[in-house]
Write a structure and sequence with these properties.
Number of helices: 3
Structural class: alpha+beta
Radius of gyration: 15 Å
Order of helices and strands: HEEEEEHH
Bound molecules: ligand GNR, nickel (II) ion
Strand order of the largest sheet: 1-2-3-4-5
Strand content: 25-35%
Helix content: 25-40%
Distance between the termini: 26 Å
Number of strands: 5
């Protein structure tokens, strides 16, 4: 087990489009274990492989109160959406920033689980938001791309300044 380092906006590596996992083997399962450990430690409710500089289509999520409902989605694909919702989002790659973001309300997702088995899942509320947020990461997209460019510029300057002071 290992804690992985989380990249911070505006690191250009966060813009990488992740590649599909070809085979869910022991190496992928080790990455998943490390991603869960990193997510729970952060703490966060989700983590995409892109955020830890691994450019394969893997996400881990746990939106449960007691942090006992781990969900791993490999090669996730949203097959239907319905409705709209606006939620305040944050991101481990954009520390200290919280903004309202509009997304689909209900989604249906197909993916492989940690054993390589096909699964279909319907999600609403925060689980739906989190899955959409994580799939954005796999496509090189961040929640700050979904707010005004003025706000995004200000956030960029703030984070660059913070990182200079580390
Ligand atoms: O921990 C997280 N909280 C969160 C809150 C609202 C909407 C999305 C998220 S995901 C975030 C962890 C993260 O950055 N995942 O990519
Ligand atoms: Ni994020």
């Amino acid at each position: 087990m290992a804690l992985l380092k989380i990249l911070h906006f505006p690191d250009s590596r966060l813009r990488t489009k992740a590649k599909p996992v070809k085979e869910v083997d022991a190496k992928i399962q080790n990455i998943i274990t490390d991603m869960f450990e990193t997510m729970y430690m952060a703490p966060g409710i989700g983590l995409a492989a892109t955020q830890v500089n691994i450019h394969q289509r893997i996400i881990v999520i746990d939106v449960s109160e007691n942090k006992n409902q781990p969900l791993c989605l490999i090669n996730p694909n949203i097959i239907s959406v319905d409705g709209q919702q606006s939620t305040e989002e944050g991101c481990l790659s954009v520390p200290g920033v919280f903004e309202q973001v509009q997304r689909a309300e209900n989604i249906t997702v197909q993916a492989l689980d940690k054993n390589g088995k096909q699964l279909t899942l319907t999600a609403d509320e925060i689980l739906s938001v989190c899955i959409q947020h994580e799939i954005d990461h796999l496509n090189g997209k961040l929640f700050v791309d979904r707010i005004s460019s003025l706000k995004r510029q200000r956030i960029r300057q703030k984070l660059i300044k913070q990182q200079r002071n580390i």
